[in-house]
Design a protein that fits this description.
single chain; alpha/beta; six-stranded mixed sheet; four-stranded antiparallel sheet; 11 helices; about 30% helix
Length: about 325
């Protein structure tokens, strides 16, 4: 156990009133695993992250880091245990990326803030791991949102803590960089024994890269377990109180509960067939008196076995079917 909660209740206070978001949560985080916090917007994911980092006091209960109460750990010592990546952008626009990432070494440098050769090596390595080293001499204010997110991640990596906690780290990254980030976090957990906890909006990332998911339920409780177990037990369908959204347990993603009712005769390999049907449903094309065949790299439209037309792409196929049905 590296981080533990005991009967933790979180939320915020408005005047003398406590607004509770999560009640009596008790769980333990272990070394070498990636944990994802998932739930509907506004349910309390960021509040949980901030509470575990010591930025927000719990309404009741306790957070322990290495068997020590979080409330009793000094900020400097806590910074040696937990590195944090939040969504807020700090006011450090005048700094270079390299200097910003070097701030992660602050807990280790002592009063002078002097960076040793080893500190500099760690800063360079952290920028390389976060894929932001090519921007090391640029100022923070010149970075895009996605690049700045990488700089935040590099700073957290340079802190070299056993626990890494992130609030929506994939928010400003394109899909390729989201995959790169999650692969890196998975590697850090497996090979360096890090404990990684992050909140995510993307359920596919949580399923594909997490060992454990902390799922916020609508009754202010958590369900905790492997994503695969949650899928087969149909847990994700309890997240949204919306009749038009459901979780497809076979494909591992949320979908509309009212897809277009379609019946198409498609003669094509599995890959092409899947995406032909996907395009027809997405474009609200109902059942049609035609069949579709994928032949020699092209898409044929047939009626009663007679070829009407051949096109080179699914986009053109959709376009022609729309015209033919009118």
């Amino acid at each position: 156990m590296i981080l533990e909660t005991k009967n933790l209740t979180i939320g915020y206070r408005t005047g003398k009133v406590d607004i509770c978001l999560l009640k009596n949560a008790s769980f333990k985080l272990q070394r070498g695993l990636v944990y994802s916090v998932f739930g509907a917007n506004g349910i309390g994911k960021s509040t949980l992250i901030h509470t575990l980092c010591g930025m927000i006091p719990p309404l009741s209960g306790e957070v322990l880091v290495g068997n020590n109460p979080l409330s009793k750990i000094s900020k400097k010592e806590l910074a040696k245990q937990i590195s944090i990546v939040l969504t807020e952008r700090p006011m450090v626009d005048y700094m270079s990326v390299s200097d910003f990432v070097a701030l992660g070494r602050t807990p280790h440098t002592g009063f002078t803030g002097y960076l040793t050769t080893e500190d500099h090596r760690i800063v360079v390595e952290s920028m390389e791991l976060a894929a932001i080293d090519h921007k090391k001499n640029q100022s923070i204010d010149s970075l895009s949102d996605g690049e700045f997110q990488k700089a935040l991640i590099a700073r957290a990596l340079s802190q070299q803590t056993p626990i890494i906690i992130m609030d929506e780290p994939a928010s400003y990254l394109d899909y390729a960089n989201q995959i790169q980030l999650m692969t890196l976090l998975q590697k850090l957990a497996k090979e360096a024994g890090k404990t990684v906890l992050l909140s995510l909006h993307h359920i596919n990332l949580a399923i594909d890269y997490s060992n454990v998911i902390l799922l916020f339920n609508n009754d202010q409780t958590l369900t905790i377990g492997a994503p695969e177990d949650m899928i087969v037990s149909n847990r994700f369908n309890s997240i949204y109180n919306k009749q038009d959204i459901y979780f497809d347990n076979f494909e591992g993603n949320f979908k509309s509960n009212n897809p277009t009712q379609t019946k198409f005769e498609v003669d094509a390999p599995t890959l092409q067939k899947k995406w032909i049907l996907h395009a027809l449903i997405k474009n609200d094309i109902p059942s049609i008196p035609f069949s579709i065949r994928f032949y020699e790299g092209q898409y044929q439209i047939l009626q009663k076995g007679i070829e009407l037309e051949t096109v080179k792409s699914i986009a053109l196929l959709v376009e022609r079917l729309k015209e033919l049905r009118t």
